[in-house]
Design a protein that fits this description.
There is one protein chain. This protein is an all-alpha fold. Among the domains are: 17-85 and 328-551 and 658-688, no CATH class; 552-657, no CATH class. 52% of the residues lie in helices and 2% in strands. Strands 1-2 form a two-stranded antiparallel sheet. It has a two-stranded parallel ribbon with strand order 3-4. Helix 9 (221-236) packs antiparallel against helix 10 (240-256) and helix 11 (271-295) packs parallel to helix 12 (332-351). The radius of gyration is 28 Å and the shape is globular. Mean pLDDT is 73; it is low at 1-32, 550-573 and 575-688.
């Protein structure tokens, strides 16, 4: 029996099957929203390496291709085939033998012995304070009182009194703290702050070698904590390839220990043991999702294999009813990070699976979009708890909790939201298609990018003013390594949008300059990638200036222009360039870096626009789009092709239809009343 309906329309089931089949073809036909990964060969080692599409590598190549003609030949500071954190590809000259500066450590054997002999418990607490203030709150996989106990042992009996696993944890904590100090307002350099090298990892290789015992011994919780502590150290210095390799080992050990099962289901775990197992697992989960997205790799922790309850949503209460309940507010920060990581996992599964199984599902996109909105609504309640109180009630408790959440952690949550928006919509804007869906996705990415840059830049400026910092070092630094990727990607999106008429060139250049300043601040940590990303953004800024200067070199001088008309005319020019190229090539050939053009919603629009407009006889080189262009006169419109004659009003109003341009102003001051924060203090005296 024929499965077609009487009116000739196939039933939805058959349409879905055809979508699945089409997804198995090449990227051009599989889905209009497809990004591809990149396989590289190393001529020196004869090996290959892969970076997946989730990292944004396809978009990076698209941006560089779009501006390649205008880039200087020596603008190869940042390879277009790399993304931040790929330490396997860091040039040898940028990968020093030692991780530390000479004034940060005591290297001489005699000095180290004297330093270790004289070190006190208070000294170790002071040295580790950056770790506990910055990293322990979002990733509480360690039991802080136990770490303080190890400090007591070192101060009383020396480092050799610790076991191998205990020493590894201490060295990880102190190594992270010393790296953090570079961004903190310490009296630096100061010989009194120098740390005996034996308390730190001197090189990445040394850090890796400390975990070899895990491969030959039975899995233990303390051994897994040691492995995660090394992984956090590697992530903190943006050695993501190495951290990802560790991640595979860590996930397998977690499976062996049963951490993917809710500990409250089992009687053999006390409430304290269940708490630390839960904290350790969700820290592993969040770090794994971060690495999978940063490098574009498949997810190894699948949600369908996990039944561990989040701290604020425990459903397995049968075995621990008599235990003293743990205040879930203490772990709301890592809980929200874990939920945000789950959303990233959903995006990776939707947008970046194997091309054979990748299907563009509008319902799937809507589901993820709703999850982002739901998560963000609850985050706002978390960071502004006073909004939930009645006026008659005492606000002191909620206000104290809000004030205890550090501004750097608040910023982390805010950036997570906008980063998810970019991850969900970026594959659409690189599709090379010419639709309103592309225009909508572009505006969402532009808005999220502006928000990321504005919030981070505002955090830096407010902190520097409050602390009167002249060198950029602040008490709540940009500690999260993902900030490098977010700022870099945001800059690329805005420059790309401006180059294709979706955003003001002047505003994009201003935002890109802010990106450079943020990345320069991140460079205080002494790692390679922020500086490389900063140089790449500068190259693209220069290329955009040259491109827009060429675009407007033929404009008549002396006629005032608006930014709205500016964007409108650049889109028309992009459209003409694209249509001219189409006449010389097959209609089925679509370049991955094809510039965005005006969606053709009229029948016969392609033929009607195939003629190019004649340039003005006079020329006026212009630095960028911000200086605007004149609107076409009525006489000019009469000499345009038929489509222009028929719908000049449509062209004039197109920028507003395709995403209204808003002048760059400080649009985030009104957030100050929203982002009132809530959490408990993370001082050492209160750590549990």
């Amino acid at each position: 029996m024929d499965s077609a309906s009487p009116n000739g329309v196939e039933p939805s089931r058959k349409r879905r099957r055809q979508s699945s089949v089409s997804a198995m073809r090449s990227s051009d036909t599989a889905s209009p929203h497809t990004e591809l990964g990149h396989m590289r060969s190393d001529d020196i080692t004869g090996s290959t390496s892969f970076v997946g599409s989730g990292s944004g590598i396809a978009f990076v190549q698209t941006v560089r291709s779009a501006l390649a003609r205008n880039m200087s030949r020596d603008s190869n500071v940042f390879d277009g085939e790399m993304v931040p954190g790929e330490d396997d590809h860091i040039p040898a000259r940028n990968s020093p033998d030692s991780l530390w500066h000479g004034d940060e450590i005591l290297v001489d054997t005699a000095e180290q012995e004297r330093g270790l002999a004289s070190i006190t418990f208070e000294d170790l607490v002071h040295l580790s304070q950056p770790y506990f203030n910055i990293w322990h709150a979002p990733f509480p996989f360690l039991h802080a009182p136990s770490i303080l106990g190890l400090f007591e042992t070192i101060s009383s009996h020396g480092l050799l009194a610790l076991s191998g696993i205990e020493a590894t944890i201490v060295r990880s904590v102190l190594s992270i703290s010393v790296a953090d100090r570079r961004q903190l307002p310490w009296d630096h350099p100061n010989p009194a702050h120098a740390v005996p090298l034996s308390l730190l990892f001197s090189t990445v290789d040394e850090a890796i070698s400390n975990i070899s015992s895990l491969l030959v011994r039975s899995s233990t919780l303390s051994g897994l904590q040691a492995a995660v502590s090394i992984q956090v150290f590697l992530i903190s210095i943006l050695r993501l390839n190495t951290a990802s390799r560790f991640g595979g080992l860590i996930v397998r050990i977690a499976f062996h220990l049963g951490l993917h099962r809710c500990p409250s289901r089992y009687k053999q775990f006390s409430a304290t043991e269940a708490d630390i197992r839960r904290r350790l697992f969700w820290s592993i989960y969040s770090l794994e999702m971060f690495l999978a997205q940063s490098l574009g790799l498949p997810i190894t922790l699948k949600d369908e294999d996990i039944d561990v309850c989040l701290p604020d949503n425990e459903i397995h209460l049968g075995n621990h009813k008599t235990a003293v309940p743990i205040d879930p507010r203490r772990f709301l920060l890592p809980t929200f990070l874990a939920r945000s990581s789950r959303i990233k996992g959903l995006i990776l599964e939707l947008r970046h699976k194997s091309i054979n199984h990748r299907i563009t599902d509008p319902d799937g996109v809507a589901h993820i979009d709703s999850e982002i909105s739901r998560w963000w609504n609850e985050v706002q309640d978390f960071i502004d708890p006073s909004s939930l109180d009645d006026d008659e009630l005492d606000h002191s408790t909620s206000q104290d909790a809000s004030d205890s959440l550090k501004s750097s952690h608040r910023l982390l949550l805010i950036v997570q939201k906008h980063e998810s928006v970019i991850l969900l919509n970026r594959p659409v804007i690189t599709s090379g298609h010419n639709t309103f869906a592309v225009a909508a996705a572009m505006q969402k990415c532009v808005g999220a990018s502006k928000a990321i840059i504005s919030r981070i830049y505002q955090h830096l400026q407010d902190s520097r003013r409050a602390e009167r910092s002249l060198d950029g070092r602040i008490s709540n630094p940009l500690f999260w390594p993902g900030f490098t990727w977010c700022v870099w990607m945001s800059g690329l999106i805005l420059l790309y949008a401006a180059s294709n008429g979706f955003y003001s060139v002047d505003a994009a250049q201003r935002e890109a300059t802010r990106c450079v300043k943020i990345l320069e601040n991140l460079s205080l940590r002494g790692v390679f990638w922020p500086g490389a990303c900063s140089a790449a953004v500068k190259d693209l800024q220069q290329a955009l200036n040259q491109k827009t200067g060429i675009e407007y070199s033929r404009e008549p001088p002396g006629i005032p222009r608006t930014t709205q008309q500016d964007i409108h005319r650049l889109r028309l020019r992009n459209n003409e360039t694209h249509l001219s190229a189409e006449s010389a090539h097959s209609d089925t050939e679509v370049a991955s870096s094809m510039p965005f053009t005006r969606p053709d919603i009229r029948q016969g629009g392609r033929e009607a626009n195939s003629d190019r407009r004649q340039p003005s006889a006079t020329s006026n080189p212009v630095f960028g789009l911000a200086s605007s262009t004149d609107e076409p006169s009525n006489s000019q419109l009469r000499h345009q092709p038929s489509f222009f004659q028929e719908d000049a009003a449509f062209l004039q109003n197109w920028p507003a239809m395709n995403g209204q341009f808003h002048p760059m102003e400080d649009q985030f001051n009104d957030f100050d009343d929203i982002f009132q924060l809530m959490d408990v203090p993370y001082h050492l005296s209160a750590l549990t």
